[in-house]
Amino acid sequence: MQSAAAAQTQPTATPTDGNDTQQENPAEVTDEEYADETSTWLARRLAGRHENGTVSLSQGQYERARDLLGDDYDRRLEQYVDVAGETGTEADDASAREFSAARENQRAFVDGVERYRTQYDRYQDAREAGDERRARRLAREMERTAANVSNQSQRLNQNYVQLENATAVSFDRSQTLVNETTANVTSLQATVREETLVGTIITVRAASPTASFTEPATIIGRIQMENGSALADRTVELRVGNRTRNVTTDADGAFETVYRPRSARVGEQSIAVAYLPSPESVYLTDSDRFTVEVQQVTPSITVERSPASVSYGDQLSASAAVTVDGTPVDGVPVEIVVDDESLDRVTTGPNGSVASSVRLPATVDDGARAVTARIPYRDRAVAGVNASERLVVARSVTRLSLNASAAGDGVVARGRLLTADGRPVANRPVRVRVAGGDGRVVETDGNGTFETRLTNVTASAATATVRAAYDEPSSNLGDANATATVTLRSSGGGAADVGAPRSVLEGLLSVLFGADGSSVPIGVGGGGYLWVLLGLVGVVMLAGVWVVTARFDVLPDQRADESSSQAVSATNGFDVSDGHPEVTVPRPSSEEQIDAYLDREEYDAAVVAAYGSLKADLAADDEALETATHWELLDHYRRNGTDDSRVDAIRTVVEAFELAAFSPASIDSERAETAVESARRLRRQ
Q1: Which domains does the chain have, with CATH numbers?
Q2: Which of 111, 124, 426, 595 has its CA 20 to 30 Å from the CA of residue 132?
Q3: Are 346 and 333 in contact (CB under 8 A)?
């Protein structure tokens, strides 16, 4: 049954899009005018989904609120992006990006509100059961969730304002409902805070104006409750910069600790100190900052490796030690690099040493190379240094197998790349081509196998020859080639012409007025599209309809091509015998890339890359996490009995990712570096 709120979104009988021209001769309308009309219509459809989603959220219909921003929304957004490219205006391109951001922010907002209300119900149950420890723990979790909901609300409202200004489509009701929902969460949390938690105030200052690794600064501080009473005679946990430690307060709540910088940037820095109560504590967290001049020291680093000669897939062990004037330097990252490729990254332990064991990848060129241990710092409290040991990389012979079979209007090619001793060669590009037809570059999977579909086979041929080649110019793997011949199912069947649109009427109806999964939003009428319906009666619409249909339509043959290829990447249109096409295979952000982001002070990019690498590692152990949002990932580990310290580390990364990916303001350097280090520690566990 349709709700009253949803029923209000049904369109009126008369178009009301503000366009005085309700009917036009399509023959007199330019392609750009078609695009403008389509852009406006699609913007309204997208805005309607946002509005209906906020209505569903206000009614507690979380799945409905998410579904409205799901696949159908994505389809409309893809159409909007295509049209934006046709209108010739940068404003439409910017609006497409803003719609994408609004979708992600509204999804996150829905998730956050649902999470808060679930936590609130559990909190009430704990209070009714007299379980004060659980109630306090939940209240503290709710404090973080409520803050995230508030932040997401601000970002979403900014999206709405930008979209309303750019598209002239009203988002007033969406904003009103989002603000009402946020106010409800804020009000509930204020009550929870008053019932269960006690606010705290921490103050800190540096006793000296400078700090270095060899001469740390003494930090003096005090913790008290909001009512002025001291948090006296207890051991508390503090986070100073990006490191945590325990300190003991005296009768006045005062404490002392030291700040020994490692990754902090050189020069005057504002360093945060946060009081971190335990999850069951009655006290709330608080933070303060002190200012200090960070000075640099230059460490010494040594490296050893074993064995002295390796080939593809062999185990390579390396160890390194970092000291300053004989004192071990703990807590700094060391990268193990071969031939400028970072193979591992490990943080030094209490004795200043690291140990790493990795398998040699294919991307390291053969010949005389070096294993390098380096501290990837620049302008930091501990200077970046490196040390190297000679390494010989031997070339490995490879074998390439290939078979092919006819498939409709094309050929499916399958094969496998192995070393001579039978090791699968994973994640390498193989060039595959059918004579007289398509050529593609595909990437082998974890077992060294590949598969792709080739089309445009010569129409008159009874057989087809398929060739595959592996021949990377820079690698420790030798070249390999293979050939297969396939008998075609029909000598008269060539590749289908994918350039022509399908039925004009079918295309227009399915693209412009197809099932959308949601009601038409408030204020969204037929607008400038009355002429489309009328024009369908006559052949005069053919030219105009082709413009829209060709822009959006996906033909059956195209779908078959896309679904039949299981390759990671593909590049069309080369001849195996004509040289090497330029191929770019996407890879997860490396530690070196993350450090480069940090060095360039691109903190948002560093955090997003670190989160992506962490999620990829976690999803490798649990496929259910592949499609999880960052908050769902955190909830997964929080609910399955994961150690609190690990959950806290994941939370640090997730909350930083939330700010970096969705906040209009950049994340600060300290929080970014803390998140990056947390992600790296988690990946090593």
Answers
A1: 9-196 (no CATH), 200-294 (2.60.40.1940), 300-393 (2.60.40.1930), 398-497+559-578 (2.60.40.10), 591-684 (no CATH)
A2: 111
A3: yes
